[in-house]
Amino acid sequence: MASIDYQSLIPNNVDLDNDRRLQRALEKWQPAFLDWWKDMGPEGYQAKDVYLRTAVSTEPGGWAVFDHVKMPDYRWGIFLADREKDRVIPGGDHAGKPVWQEVPGEHRNALRRIIVTQGDTEPASVEQQRLLAKTAPSLMDMRNLFQVNVEEGRHLWAMVYLLHAYFGRDGRDDAEELLARRSGDEDKPRILDAFNQPCSDWLTFFCFTMFTDRDGKYQLGALAESAFDPLSRTCRFMLTEEAHHLSVGESGIERVLRRAAELTKLDPNGDARNQGGIDLQTVQKWINYWFSYSIDLFGSEISSNSADYFSSGLKGRWREAADHSEHSAMNQFYQMPVVQNGKMGVEDIPLRNAMNEVLRQDYIADCQRVVKRWNRMLKKQDVDFQVSLPHNRFFRRQGIYAGQEFNPQGEPISDDEWNAKKNEWLPTDEDRAYVKSLMVPVTEPGKMAHWIAAPLRGINRQGPDFEYVRL
Ligand code: BYC
Ligand code: FE
Ligand code: FE
User: Fold this and answer.
1) CA angle, corner 294, sides to 320 and 393, nearest 5?
2) pLDDT tens digits for 392-448?
3) For a surface tag, which of 142, 204, 337, 376 has the fewest beta carbons within 10 Å of its beta carbon?
4) Is there an atom of ligand 1 within 6 Å of 294 CB?
């Protein structure tokens, strides 16, 4: 089961050779995917050799090989984690019963919707990042960008496989539309807000992989707990790839902060911008912006959709099977902070209706752990600055806190106060223009742009001067 068939046109471990209809349908979608990749994938680098890892097995440890390949030759395939023997439904009304190998009719629409939403984010992120390579701060960063991009392409394959294999004609139509929507397009935008935001500088890329890819980690984690076993197995393998995306984000911001601290100390007035770098306050603004957009991705704090998904077993909580002992979430309540007459109060919400918030809080705790690590580094650098995450009510456009202004501490404020302060909290046009002005390409092996520190280690134990991309 774990070994992957690389002889087929579409590498897979789902025995595609023995399902001719499915194989033919996917082989029809494949050229459309490649056309999309050539149009919307990294611009200007399709013919270059890139040091990429490719999945060759689904065994933990030794699952990937590294080699120089041209991106259009990357072997995008369909890989599911091994089937777990006697797996039972982790949570909801059917907890403890055998998982489903087919889609129950009554959950077909909801499942399709979840899979389409998940699938839509993957190509969206590639579209958002398509011009970034032209201003990569180093060859290794460029390579990491491409690695993330090809794997997001594979994640699209993962969802398209499920649509083709389990949703018939509707699924095939959905798969076509996944290649037709475009990030930021007014007429046919991507589904979720964060995936229509421009990603035109590298500070944004690092924030995106730190915060937005981490939503991926938590959503995939919730779907790994699904009663629909093929979805669970697909997501479990996607999570293996996801870890690298998160480390690109975490270490990328760490390097920007480290360099900002060095340049702050170097400047007589403590102004890193005077030294041609990005200052710490600017990094904080980018964090405020992308953290807020990313927590919007969890949906509303109070949501009947989330209750339905949980009770029917389509989604679980983070590590539902491993970390929870009570799996029904019935007759329990979540104390939800709500705005009442302009002041904060608390309302008891049935736990099932609060599942989006439960997952969001797990996500926030994960982000906090990373912020702590950054702050330890800043302390060591001996600068008088600590990074923080804004409150989860700050700058929201989805959920119960949208439509009212809050400061980064989460206190409700007036529109006037918001307007007076927002430029201190969020990137201004001027900040964006300044950061953009620093985005000059550095393509000599081992060299770094001025605004970012060198990474602590290379990829797959390669040295700093390694030619990660042959230009
Ligand atoms: N933007 O009850 P509500 C990743 C919509 S990232 C726009 O609040 P629900 C990746 C919602 O669709 C992981 N619309 O929310 C990362 C609904 O619309 P309808 C992606 C939004 O349904 C980086 C309405 O508001 N995976 O993999 O409980 C690079 C009210 O719904 C937003 C998934 O999202 C928003 N932010 O939950 C590459 C998993 N938020 O029905 C990849 C699958 C909500 O009224 N998706 N809405 O038309 C889901 O489980 C759910 O759809 C959500 C929303 C958690 C997103
Ligand atoms: Fe992904
Ligand atoms: Fe990712």
Assistant:
1) 95
2) 999 999 999 999 999 999 999 999 999 999 999 999 999 999 999 999 999 999 999
3) 376
4) no
Note whether residue 11 is domain-resident.
no
Domain that holds residue 369: 16-470
Q: For ligand 1, say whether the CB of 193 is within 6 Å of any of its atoms.
A: yes
SS3 132: helix
Q: What is the CATH number of the domain that holds 136?
A: 1.10.620.20
The reported pTM is 0.97
Name the domain count of the chain.
Answer: 1
Long-range interactions of 379-382: CB distance < 8 A, separation 24+ = 381/258, 381/261, 381/262, 381/265, 382/265
Let me know how long the chain is.
Answer: 471
Give domain status of residue 9, yes or no.
no
Please report how many Cα atoms fall inside a 13 Å half-sphere around the Cα of residue 259, on the Cβ side.
Answer: 23
Please, which residues have CB within 8 angstroms of residue 109's CB and are 6 or more apart in sequence?
none
> Rounded to the nearest whole angstrom, what is the distance from the C-alpha of residue 155 to the centroid of ligand 2?
5
Give phi and psi for 282, each to the nearest 5.
-70, -40
Domain-embedded: residue 7: no
